[in-house]
Amino acid sequence: MKVDIDQSWRMEYTNKKTVLADSLGNSLILKAGDKKNLQRLFRKAGKSRMFVYEVFAGLLAILISLSHEKKVKYIYRIDLEYPGWSEQIKDFVLRFSRKLGIKVIADQIEFASIGRKSEAHQNAYKVFKGWMKPTRIVVADEILRLVLI
Questions:
Q1: I want to staple 124 with a disulfide (CB 3.0 to 4.6 A). Which of 21, 89, 95, 98 is the partner?
Q2: Which residues in 79-114 are b (16+ Cβ under 10 Å) and which e?
Q3: How far apart (Å, rounded) are the C-alpha atoms in residues 62 and 146?
């Protein structure tokens, strides 16, 4: 079964929250303040170029963990947000998923343009606008535990 995943408000735009949602109805928010703190910490760590990709992958791993079931092998189809970085993001998602205690294999993750009619896009937009509550609010410390430790 394919599960689409989309992002509303890109990671590098730190003036507003970022929402990730899937087509199953799961969603999460990373608030603007947390994004700014993470960006500052990545700069201090000398990893400023990787901020966007690692934080995005961390959020993807957390979102996947919300829907991950051992009995169902989902294929996660992620909207192509960062062309040229798909393989690196996939590697990060696999590593972060292991840290979260879920088993996801490379064949379960693919990148494609999913479009505005996707249920994932609609869910992300509704959560971003405040019309729908997120499943989870992610804080900077959760991401730090995945990416910097």
A1: 21
A2: bebbeebbeebbebbbebbeebebebeeebbebeeb
A3: 10
Closest CA to 97 of 125, 67, 137: 67
- The candidate with the shortest Cα–Cα distance to 31, out of 52, 9, 50, 49, is 9
The pTM (predicted TM-score) of the whole model is 0.95
CB atoms within 10 A of CB 141: 11
Please give the Cα distance from 120 to 94 (Å, whole number): 21
Q: Residue 73: helix, strand or coil by DSSP?
A: coil
**Is there a contact between 133 and 36 (Cβ–Cβ < 8 Å)?**
no
What is the rounded CA–CA span in Å between residue 80 and residue 6?
A: 9
User: Exposed, middle or buried: residue 119 (CB in 10 Å: 0-12, 13-18, 19+)?
Assistant: middle
User: What tens-digit pLDDT sequence spans the chain (149 residues)?
Assistant: 899 999 999 999 999 999 999 999 999 999 999 999 999 999 998 888 899 999 999 999 999 999 887 667 899 999 998 999 999 999 999 999 999 999 999 999 999 999 889 999 999 999 999 999 999 999 999 999 998 76
